[in-house]
Structures are given as C-alpha cells and as structure tokens.
Design brief:
Blueprint (H helix, E strand, L loop, with lengths): L5 E2 L5 E2 L7 E4 L20 E4 L18 E3 L2 H7 L2 E2 L5 H15 L4 H12 E2 L2 E2 L2 E4 L8 E4 L2 E6 L2 E4 L6 E2 L6 E4 L3 H8 L11
Parallel strand pairs: 1-5, 4-6
Antiparallel strand pairs: 1-2, 3-4, 3-5, 7-8, 9-14, 10-11, 10-14, 11-12, 12-13
Length: 197
C-alpha cells in the first residue's frame, strides 16, 4: 500500500500509487506509525528535485519531515509550495528575483510568511475570485469542485493520472494557485507541466 504522501493541487495529502516528478516538505506531518496527523508543521513549504547529490531517504521516519510528492510543478505551485533554495538553487534565485521585484521581499522567511497568508484562510484554502481570462499559464483554478490548469493550449482537468481536456470555465473563477504565485507566473515564472500539448 502506498504512503499517504501524494499532494493534490488543493494541498491535500493522499495515498495513491502515482509518485510524481517533484518532492517537497512542510515539516513532520506523520506520527510514529506513518499516519498523517496534520496538514503542515511549518510555513516553509518547498518543492525539491527527486534526485540531489545521490541523497537517499527512508520514507516516513518517526520525527523526521514527511516526504511529499507532486505530479508536476504546476501541482506544487497550486498547493502553495515554492522552489527549494538548496537543491533548486538556480530556480530559487529566479523565483526570488521575480518576487523581490514585485513584492519587495527577498528573505525566505518573508516570502514564506506571505505565501502562508495567501494559501490559507484559517484552516480552509484561500480562493480568490478572478476573471478566467486573466489566469496565467501554469496556474490552476477550482471549477465545479475540480482543479483545472490553464495551459497554452487551453484548459485541462487535473488528476493523479494526468490531465484531460476541460471546457473553458465561466468568466469568473476561483483561483486555486495562491495569488502571489499566479502573479509571478504572469510575469514570466517558468512552470513545469506534465502535459503533452
């Protein structure tokens, strides 16, 4: 049985066999038996590469951070994660430069604090109503209860098995990708999407 450590665009954690292309963490979320007990422990939600300097981890070790996996980078961004400053240093520097130009903050703690406010309203996800035509490529919306990706070729319904074509949503949509991250996408932040367009 797979571990409960696969993350959907809403940031919820599932036990499914698909692992994904990206790795990340939010602190230690599991108990000694490996059961997820909380959604996050820290504000620093990062996305990492799955292979870095040959490091190997035993998954879901008691007292250690919970290893999370994302289908693609668009999923990780929608869930509210940002690039890791260590294993994705070049991506982090590009991300931080865009962030600083737009918001004036450059320290990771400042960025993480703003992202924490942008992704959560209490314990619920923070959704922002926007015009569908303004959603940048790489961002996701919640349409009829389902995450939908905006890509160059149109709209795509998300699942752990991949994307399927979706009809264009209504004129107003609920932006699922936290607004500051969507803004960076509009400014040119590259986003890896596992989609054959």
């Amino acid at each position: 049985m797979p571990y409960q450590n696969r993350v959907d665009p809403l940031g919820q954690i599932h036990a499914v066999p698909q692992r994904g292309l990206w790795f990340g963490n939010r602190g230690c979320l599991h108990d000694a038996g490996g059961k997820i007990r909380r959604a996050h422990q820290v504000r620093r939600w990062i996305t990492c590469v799955t292979d870095f300097k040959g490091r190997r981890r035993t998954l879901v070790q008691p007292g250690r951070y919970t290893e999370l996996f994302f289908f693609d980078e668009a999923t990780a961004y929608a869930a509210g994660h940002r690039p890791c400053a260590e294993c994705r240093h070049a991506d982090w520097l590009r991300f931080r430069a865009l962030w600083e130009a737009e918001y004036g903050e450059r320290r990771a703690d400042e960025i993480d604090a703003r992202l924490d406010v942008a992704r959560r309203h209490g314990r619920a996800r923070r959704l922002v109503a926007v015009a569908s035509e303004t959603v940048p490529k790489g961002a996701m919306v919640l349409h009829e209860g389902v995450p939908v990706l905006r890509a160059g070729s149109g709209w795509w319904r998300w699942s752990f098995d991949g994307y399927t074509p979706a009809p264009a949503p209504d004129a107003r949509v609920s932006l699922l990708t936290p607004a500051p991250l969507a803004r960076l996408m509009a400014l040119g932040l590259p986003v890896q999407i596992s989609l054959s367009e």
